[in-house]
Amino acid sequence: MPGKKIRVLLIDDSPVALAVIQKVLASDRDIEVVASFLDPQKALAQIAEINPDVICVDFFMKRMDGLEFTKIVMSQFPCPILVISVAVGMDDGHNIFELLDAGAVDVIKKPPSGHFKDYLKTDLVQKVKIASGVRVLTRRPISENMSHFTSTDNQRFQVIAIGASTGGPKALHDILSVLPKHFPIPIVVSQHITSGFLSGLIRWMGRCCALKVQMAVDQEPLLGGHVYFCPEESNLLFTKNRTIALQPKTPDQVYCPSINTMFHSVAEHYGSRAIGILLTGMGDDGAMGMKYLHAKGGLTIAQNEASCVLYGMPRAAVELNAVSKVMDIAEIGSYLMRLAAKQFVG
Asked: Does residue 189 share a domain with residue 258?
């Protein structure tokens, strides 16, 4: 007996784009396009009746843009949303991350018309399938402590390493926006993100946070009050002098940047002086690296299932007994503040 198909609702005020997207999705046997609209307001009026598993919507539309549409859907009919638009290039970082902050699962760049079909065939179908498994967040439960971490009372941490994938930009925002300008512990981040979007993420995060947010540079020393994002197509490690060491993606690498690689290097060079945090994402990247960091005495934190968009990566770490604490995303930033309070320098 065939499995249940993923029910997709499409909204785009370009008839040509709508027809191409519908044809691409309909070519996959696991997906069914249950309705399509040129007018987002008409789509809103019928969402409850259609009851889609995933919504794909354009950003620039005449009667209502994708951001307003996303906000209404997430407040009235919570559903995984993918935004497909030309408004996600290097100069549109604010558009991308405002959409993700409003509740969109992902944003896909709409290519030139001549390359539309081939591009979407390799990217959109996969993202629709991922989105269909996304948890729609409607509540903020209390944290669940896996075990009591007892060595922090007199411990001075020297680095915080964070790994994230799908849902990561919003989760990172929830953590980093809580931390003050003079937060004493340097932070390094490996975020799986669509190619071309990282610079926009860094600009958006920099506007939302008091910390200095930047792209990591090879051989750069770590400073308090700074957040260093691993560049695209690179892995973030450390030298014996604890400066950043960037290594290119290897041909056999599934995830890039590799969260496992980052955690493993942090464990080697910082051990019990490190905090590792694994956030929302599909798959298991980061789990083995977190286990190694945990074995070296580091404090390891996993985002809890109820606040994850996708619980795959944190779940994998929990199942390996690699996690000191499981916490709701709303609590992690304030917890880091408490740990670092004695290390403030002004």
From this structure: yes
